[in-house]
Amino acid sequence: MKKHAIIPIFISHRGCPNDCVFCNQKKITAREGDVTPDDVRSTIDQWLTTLDEVETVEVSFYGGSFTGIPMDQQTAFLEIAKDYKDRGLIDMIHLSTRPDYIDREILDNLKAHSVDVIELGVQSFSDEVLMLSGRGHDASCVYRACDLIKSYGFTLGIQLMIGLPGDSRETCRMSALETVKIHPAIARIYPTVTIRDTELYRMMERGEYQPLPLEEAVQRAKEMYLILEGNGINVIRVGLKASEIMEDQIGFHPAFRQLMESEIARDSMEAQLAAMSYAGEPLSLLVRANSRSFGNIYGHKGMNRDHFQKKYPRLRLKGALDESLKDGEYILTPEADLL
Ligand code: SF4
User: Fold this and answer.
1) Nearest CA to ligand 1 atom 6
2) Are 104 and 148 in contact (CB under 8 A)?
3) What's the CA gap between 169 and 241, in Å, rounded?
4) What whole-number distance in Å separates Cα of residue 49 and Cα of residue 40?
5) How far is the centre of ligand 1, averaged over its atoms, from the C-alpha of 68 (Å)?
6) Cα–Cα distance for residue pair 207/47, rounded to 1 Å
């Protein structure tokens, strides 16, 4: 049985007064195509016909700034979601918004409509990165919003971005560490993509911004992921889905998370080989992992297999399933030990 299903409802923030340099939503100005409360109802109905065998169903309003739209529109959408929740047809209501669109009036309304999860597009805890990215708020606003959300008892999520203007390994690490202090239940890590017709694209054309090379983005994501997961924060997403991407973008890799997880697996195997004082002699080892992490042993497109073959031609690594292990756990065992 599938555990968790998400019914996604995209609420664009038309007339958004902000100027985030990476944003491509501001181009959207026509009224046609706006989601109406009736659309929300029919979307939920349609999805529910396909979700018989699911343990929990969540309606998720995404698009970035749900609480930035006028209060009466928020209420119109939320009333519908609450109606489905009250009737036991869905289990959770989830939305994403900006830190500066959080205050008591907004949260009172969300609470009254049984919202469960609020995700904040924080992007960075560096004031300089926030300023250079045109976010329109500073990090102190993030702390305030997070405190308030937690004080109401909502489940908090934090979204962070890698590779914005002014960003560095240090600011990425700092953002992950600050996130740990706030300790949201969930987090997402997105590498910045540079989309045509955005200010970021123009900055790139003017030579004021350099998109992060993929390898560097993977390294930063890995470090942030390990900090967050290592401190009990569930990183529910790393990288964008292909369906979230438009044409003309730079910096998108469809298997970004797998690249990162493959590197984590490689680091773990390297560390265990070092602990065994392995020096290149002929050796056969099993690498155990659960079924969700198994593919990372060999890595995206066999990158780890190639790496070890090149580095240690006389080492033979064989993957073995072990469902008793946690996600992301890789255990090297001499083959003979298991016989
Ligand atoms: S990303 Fe920034 S500019 Fe774009 S809609 Fe969201 S808040 Fe507005």
Assistant:
1) 64
2) yes
3) 24
4) 15
5) 10
6) 45
Domains and CATH numbers, the chain: 2-253 (3.20.20.70), 260-338 (3.40.1260.20)
Helix (H, G, I), strand (E, B) or coil at 7: strand
- For residue 255, which of 308, 303, 323, 320 has the smallest C-alpha distance? 303
* CA–CA distance, 110 with 117 (Å, rounded to integer): 10
Distance (Å) from CA 19 to ligand 1 centroid: 6
pTM of the model: 0.92
Tens digit of each residue's pLDDT (9 = 90 or more) over 8-67: 998 887 668 888 999 877 554 444 467 899 999 999 999 999 987 889 999 999 886 899
**DSSP conformation class of 326:** P
Smallest CA separation from ligand 1 atom 1, residue: 23
pLDDT range class, residue 336, cuts 50, 70, 90: low
Distance 25 CA to ligand 1 centre (A): 7
